Task: structure prediction
Amino acid sequence: MATMRNALPRRLVGLASLRAVSTSSLGTFPKRVKIVEVGARDGLQNEKNIVSTSTKIKLIDMLSEAGLPVIEATSFVSPKWVPQMADNAEVLKGIQKFPGINYPVLTPNIKGFQAAIAAGAKEVTVFGAASELFTKKNTNCSIEESLQRSDEILKAARAADIPVRGYVSCVLGCPYEGKISPAKVAEVTKKMYSMGCYEISLGDTIGVGTPGVMKDMLSAVMHEVPVAALAVHCHDTYGQALANTLMALQMGVSVVDSSVAGLGGCPYAQGASGNLATEDLVYMLSGLGIHTGVNLQKLLEAGTFICQALNRKTSSKVAQATCKL
Amino acid sequence: MGNVPSAVKHCLSYQQLLREHLWIGDSVAGALDPAQETPQLSGLPEYVKIVEVGPRDGLQNEKVIVPTDIKIEFINQLSQTGLSVIEVTSFVSSRWVPQVAAGATEISVFGAASESFSKKNINCSIEESMQKFEEVVKSARHMNIPVRGYVSCALGCPYEGTIIPQKVTEVSKRLYGMGCYEISLGDTIGVGTPGSMKRMLESVMKEIPPSALAVHCHDTYGQALANILTALQMGINVVDSAVSGLGGCPYAKGASGNVATEDLIYMLNGLGLNTGVNLYKVMEAGDFICKAVNKTTNSKVAQASFNA
Result:
C-alpha cells in the first residue's frame, strides 16, 4: 500500500500547476493494459431489453474465452431498482470461473455484500460519485453517507479477505451539477483508496469529457492516489471515449473499463450511446502494441451473440466493419 | 450505479451543461472568452482549420443521390457555420479545365501511397499519376489556382495491407514539391491507430513542414478522434471531416467512413482550441442533410443532443 501524501489545499493552486504535473510524452504508453469488461453488468443494466439468465451466463463464458482478465458479472442492487440484474445469484453461480479471471460484482450496501458473498463472490465493487446531487438522486444520500456505506462494506470485505474495487461517477461532468472540479474527484477517490479499495475506476458517466479535462482531472487525482491504482471508465455519448482513454494512457493509467459491443445506452440522453466498445478499445491497444491478453475474434463473437439476444445493432465500429451481417 | 428517473433528461443543469459543452449560442467567431477557465492542453496548436469534405467525400459515398437543390441548400447552410473550407470539388481528371471554367477556385489531386490502390482507383501507377499531376499543378499555378494534394492509404491499404511511412513521405514530398500548398494524409480505410499515425507523421514531417499537412481520418474502426488527437499533439493543425460523418466506407460494407465534424468540433472545443466554427449550426446542417438522404447521423454528438 502506497504512502499517504499530504492533502492538496482545498483551493486549486491554479491550472498552471496542474499542467506542470508530469505528463507522459507522446510515445510513452504502458506495456500492458488490463481491460475490465463491464458489459454484463453496466451494459446489460442499461439496455431496454432484459435477457435470460442463461443468455447472461453464456455471454460471460464467451467473454472469459476471449481472455478478458476482469469481467464484472452482475449487480446485487435491489431488483426494485435494477430489474435487469434480479437473477444475480443464479448468474454468479452459473458462470464458469476461469482461473486467472476475476468476476467482481457490484454491491451497494452491506445487505447486497452479504448476498454476494453467499452467492460465491470473490471480489466486489462499490460506487461513489464526485457530485452531491448525483449521489442524492442516484442513491438517496449524500457523498459522505455513501462513503460510510462503502466503508461498512470495506470493513466486512477485509475481514472476509475480499478485494474491493471502487467506482467514482461524474468525474468529468454531472447531469445535475454541470462542471465537476478535479479537486472534488481527487477528494472522493482518495477517501475510497484510503478506506481500502485496491483500485478506483474514474467514470465519465455522461461522456461529456474531452482529453484536456481528462488530463486535468487525472493530474489532480494522481497527486493523491498512485496511478497504478487508477482506472478510467469512459462513456462514448459524444464520441470522445477513445480519445479520452488515449489521454489517460499517456498519463500512465493502465486499467480501462469498456463494454462488449458498447452495450448500455446513456440514461441521460435518450437514444445516445453509452459505454466505450471493448472491440474498439482492443483494436487501438493492439495497434499500439500494448498487451491485453484479449482475443479480438472471440470478443467479436461474444458481441455478435449478445446483440442478437438483445435484438439490437452493435455500437462497436470494429464489429460493424468486420462482421458482414 | 442504479437506474435513474427519466425526469433527469429534462433537468435544467443538464441542458446547461450541454450548452456549455456544445457552445450553443456562441458567436460564430468562436473566440474564447478569457474569463472562462477552459483547460488548454499545452503543446497543441491554438487554432485548428477544419476542412469540411461532406458535400464531396461524404455525399459521393452515400447510396442515395442527392438532388442539386438539396446539395446547394446543404452547402449554403455549411457556409453559415464559420467553416473556412468546404470541399465541393470532385475527382480531378485530365479534363479539369471545364471545372475551372465553371468557377472552381481550388483544385485537388489524389495520389496514393499504395501501387495497388493507385492502379485500382485511378488505373495507373503512382509514378504515372505523379506525372499527370505535375501537368495539372503547373497549369493551375499559372492560373493562380491553389492545389491541395491528397495521399490515400497513408496508414494502410485494402489491397496491400501495411504501408510503410517512407512510401507516404515519398509521395507527399512529390506532391508538395510540385506545388501543392497542403497535403492531406488520408487513412482511407480507417485502420490506423495512434501508433501508426505517429510513425507516419514523424516520417513525413522530416520532409514537409507540419503547417502544410492535414489529416483525413476515417472512423471505420472507431479510431478517428484518437488518431486526430495524436496528430494535433504532433503539431498538425488542419483536419478533414464530414458533417454527420457522411460517407460510408466502400471497402467494408456497412461500416462508417468519415469522422463526423460535430464530434471533432466537440473535442476541439473541449480542448480549448479555436476553430471559428459554430457547432450548433453544423449540427443543424447535419440534421438537414440526414433528413434529405433519409439516414441516421453518424455523429455521436448529434445523436446525444437531438434526443436530449
The longest helix of chain A spans residues 143-159. The radius of gyration of chain A is 18 Å. The longest strand of chain A covers residues 124-129.
